[in-house]
Amino acid sequence: MELKLKALYMPVVLRWGIIDNGYFMNKKLLFSLLLGLFISSLTAQPAVQKIVLHQNWQFSEQNKNKWYAAKVPGTVHTDLLTNKLIPDPYYRDNEKKLQWIGETNWDYKTTFQADAAILQRKNIELVFDGLDTYADVYLNGQLLFSADNMFRQWKADVKQLLKPNNTLLIRFASAKNKVDSIAKSKLPFVLPDNARTYARKAQYHFGWDWGPTFITCGIWKSVYLEAFNERPIEKPFTAVNKVELVQQPDQYGKTFYFKINGKPVYMKGANYIPSDMFTPRLTKEDYRKILMLAKDANMNMLRVWGGGIYEEDVFYDLCDELGIYIWQDFMFAGAMVPGDEQFFNNVKEEVKYQIKRLRHHKSIVVWCGNNEVDEAWHQWGWQNQFNLHGQDSAKVWNDYVRLFRDSIAAWVNVFDGTRQYVSTSPTNGWGRAKSITEGDSHYWGVWWGLEPVEIFEQKTGRFVSEYGMQAMPNYSSIEKFTLPQDRFLFSDVIHQHQKAGNGFMKIESYLHRYFLDSAKVKQLSLQDYTYLTQCLQYYSLKNAIAIHRSKEPYNMGTLLWQLNDCWPVASWSITDYSREPKAAWYAVKEAYRDDVKPVRDSVYPKDVVLKKPSFTIRHEGENLFSIVSNVDAKYVYLYKQQTFFDIDDNYFDLKAGVKKYLHVKNRYFSTKEISTIKIKSLFDVLRK
After folding, report:
1. What is the pLDDT of residues 139-160, one digit of tens each?
2. Is the dihedral of CA 508, 509, 513, 517 positive or negative?
């Protein structure tokens, strides 16, 4: 109390005055004033009262009136799973069996109370930070609004409708049915690439070449009441960093690099996709673990890819804290866009809301309009595939230009004005000469073009914002989504967890080039195949990064595809859905070091002379052990059965007789554990 009274004393003294001897003219009056002000400070209401409405939710299939407990924020898939109404969507081939969920309409409802302190406020708003996606919202039986954008905040004035006891109902329509209906109504005109483009919804929910198809719905972010008498004044925005994207003509073409506070920065990083199909179940600790994998791999940039979501606040908070720069796509990927005013206005509100939400984060250094849409229009053959010629073709392209080159550019300038905007990524597709001499580059000659990794010696762009190589998920993850009878090449279940077109064929092509003859691939056990694909990804990214970094300052950025996975799958990710490293993560960690640049391998792994190694492991301390081999050994992998062995290095090479020390991370490591460690090296697979 004493501190509060002192804090109140000064304004009172200034108002009433002091006599020369320092005593107040009327001590009783002073005491009364101070006491009154103190009591009012204890009882004063905040300028805005916020009442979170996350309790007592239920959900039901529409018109079935069979209600089950629901979690908010959440999704219908996770609610069904929690209530044991469906099996694990990621297990075996359950994805195929659960498509009905995305084709069904769902209702969510709750009841809540509003006390007198809320009801007496002049203004009361119901706020949804995220509704996924097509939703009619009713309060006490009256329709408030119809939402149609997962990425917008939705508000309604409920002052006149709110009562002491209230019922809130949200009726979700199937996004798949909605977009299919819209697309059908436009026939014979077909907008590339998919009906999904009509929905302002996470595009990866409709399936991708590393992800399943789970078309979600639900209250995926917070819902709450805000009550106030006077709306708080919006605080002015001030940029924390001075960020420049330098694109200047030079003797080669045009530069593409970032200056942060006047200093050029070479960007080393990866592309980031949503870390789950059902993102509301991600916790702050999940985000920290994922982002620490980036930080510990010596990354300084992540590109938030445009087919996912604008990430949670905690994601950007952690990036601010960890010193990870963010390339932020707007949520458009691989599809042209409608040109009607309703769609444009919807996107404008989305852009306005997301920029105002995120612009204070110092981690964000650039806004980008879309992922690969410009490239797709010019290089993927859409005009012939979708019969878009003449006026139809011109309309689709003009709508694209109006949204990404004109409108969003103007909106970014209005709502931010401190960061630069690029309309698309990449600037030029990988088949065009300019992709190497200017702008950012997605170089997929490696993988899609089946070119060797060494092609980067001739085809490294100014800023390589996508490239990669596939590998299987960790074997411990495979064991979790399979039954024993599924664990062979190439079972139906294993195929279900490979979404890339001809993915296994492409892996086989690269294994043949760098590791072993194709005929031997099909003879491998699933466990050995998994190990070898991870060695392939290790080799590919180590050497690609070595080439990219050797070309600095011509090249000023290398962002591999991709950091993370949204489910257990064969993919380009260098970490597993379990949030644990794959082999390539260790290669990237070394290749992205600040103190030394990586060096290319001079010999293909298949040409290395291999002898049968014998390993000795010794306990060296409470979390320290050593390993030594009697001969040179390559891609030495230490593991445990059915669990991840968390050590500070793995898939390493050993020189004969040279002891390597390893730390077990974040726990005590006993001598007894030595006998549980298993070891695999390249000899074990190639020389069987």
Report:
1. 999 999 999 999 999 999 999 9
2. positive
| Beta-strand relationship, 243-246 and 440-442 | unpaired
Amino acid at site 121:
R
- DSSP for 496-548? HTB-STTHHHHHHHHHHHHTS-HHHHTTS-HHHHHHHHHHHHHHHHHHHHHHH
Task: For 608-687, give the CATH class.
Answer: mainly beta
Question: At CA 435, angle to CA 434 and CA 437, rounded to 5?
Answer: 60
CA angle 301, 305, 311 (to 5 degrees): 85
Topology (CATH) of 48-228: Jelly Rolls (2.60.120)
Measured CA to CA, the distance from residue 431 to residue 442 in angstroms comes to: 10
Q: What is the mean pLDDT of the chain?
A: 93
| Strands 678-680 and 633-639, sheet pairing | antiparallel
278: closest CA among 485, 98, 459, 499?
98
Residue 284 C-alpha from the chain's centroid: 13
Give 95's DSSP letter: H
Is residue 16 over pLDDT 80? no
DSSP 4-50: HHHHHHHHHHHHH---TTS--S-HHHHHHHHHHHHHHHHHPPPSEEE
**Per-domain residue ranges of the chain:** 48-228, 243-592, 608-687
Q: In the chain, what's the furthest Cα-to-Cα distance?
A: 102
pLDDT in tens, 28-46: 555 555 555 554 444 456 7
CA distance 346 to 517: 54
How open is the CA angle 366-73-279, to the nearest 5 degrees? 50
Q: Please name the amino acid found at residue 388.
A: L
pTM for the model: 0.92
Q: Which residues fall within 8 angstroms of residue 230, CB to CB, at 6 or more apart?
A: 47, 122
Q: Is the peptide bond before 533 cis (omega within 30 degrees of 0)?
A: no
Yes or no: is domain 243-592 CATH 3.20.20.80? Answer: yes
